[in-house]
């Protein structure tokens, strides 16, 4: 069987990232705030984890299911993704995320009296859910993205158990959200942060630099550290 073409891989990344934004951000915008039946932080965290888990089974064999520019950077640093594919992957992910946010916006605005508000954007300072500083937000995003990439690299190593990587990765993202929703509303993904910011503007776009820089730094560090710890970088087949 021939390997998927670059166009097929990029399409898979766009579709997968749209699902991540629609499922994860959608749970925050639509379900978490529903009067009397809100799913809360835990529900939103689980929703984000489930989007990655489900899509990893669906497209992991096509594109690797990165769904995240930081993940693609980390995998490139670790030698898992050819450098020539990095920019196309990032572009596809951002486009997919924007489509997911656009669909969510169309659904959300179908309710009379809907107010856009934060629209699941990320932020620090007065735009942090818990009022955390820029420094706290930066450290949180760097460290949690590092651990996210470390789990991704480890669970997809050819020596890892069977085909359980999607479960480990999805649960890892769930845990990350449980930790960091109060701090930044959880990014660890520049595409996820960019998409809702396009609709909100203002502080959401002004603070977007942190939600690109910090996850990429954390992912790049993991891409260096994991091969040093593991001794090999071969992905599972």
Textual characterization of the structure:
Helix content is 70%, strand content 0%. The chain is an all-alpha fold and 237 residues long. Helix 1 (6-31) packs parallel to helix 4, helix 2 packs across helix 6 and helix 5 (134-155) runs antiparallel to helix 6. The two termini are 14 Å apart.
* Biggest pleated-sheet summary: none
Residue share in β-strands: under 5%
Count of DSSP H/I helices: 9
Task: Kindly state the percentage of residues in helix.
Answer: 55-70%
Radius of gyration: 17 Å
The total beta strand count reads 0
Mean residue pLDDT: 94
Q: Distance N terminus to C terminus?
A: 14 Å
Residue stretches low in confidence (pLDDT < 50, at least 5 long) are: none
Q: What's the SSE pattern? A: HHHHHHHHH
Shape: globular
Structural class: mainly alpha
Keywords:
237 residues, mainly alpha, 9 helices, 70% helix, 0% strand, globular
Give the helices and strands, then pairings:
Elements: H1 6-31, H2 40-63, H3 69-77, H4 83-108, H5 134-155, H6 165-184, H7 190-200, H8 203-206, H9 208-230
Helix pairs in contact: 1-2, 1-4, 1-7, 2-6, 3-4, 3-5, 3-9, 4-7, 5-6, 5-9, 7-9
Please provide a brief summary of the model:
This protein has 237 residues and is mostly helical. It is 70% helix and 0% strand.
């Amino acid at each position: 069987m021939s390997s998927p073409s670059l166009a097929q891989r990029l399409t898979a990344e766009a579709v997968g990232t749209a699902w991540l934004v629609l499922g994860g951000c959608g749970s925050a915008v639509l379900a978490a705030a529903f009067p009397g039946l809100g799913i809360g932080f835990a529900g939103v965290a689980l929703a984000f984890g489930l989007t990655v888990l489900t899509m990893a089974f669906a497209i992991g064999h096509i594109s690797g299911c990165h769904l995240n520019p930081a993940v693609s950077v980390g995998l490139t640093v670790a030698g898992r993704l050819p450098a020539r594919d990095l920019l196309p992957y990032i572009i596809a992910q951002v486009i997919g995320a924007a489509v997911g946010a656009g669909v969510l916006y169309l659904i959300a605005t179908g309710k009379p009296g809907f107010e856009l508000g934060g629209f699941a954007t990320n932020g620090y300072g007065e735009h942090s859910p818990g009022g955390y500083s820029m420094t706290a937000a930066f450290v949180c995003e760097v460290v949690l993205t590092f651990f996210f990439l470390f789990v991704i690299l480890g669970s997809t190593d050819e020596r890892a158990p069977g085909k359980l990587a999607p479960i480990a990765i999805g649960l890892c993202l769930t845990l990350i959200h449980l930790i960091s929703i109060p701090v930044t509303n959880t990014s660890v993904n520049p595409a996820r942060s960019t998409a809702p910011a396009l609709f909100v503007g203002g502080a959401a776009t002004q603070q977007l630099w942190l939600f690109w820089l910090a996850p990429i730094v954390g992912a790049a560090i993991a891409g260096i550290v994991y091969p040093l710890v593991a001794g090999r970088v071969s992905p599972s087949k």
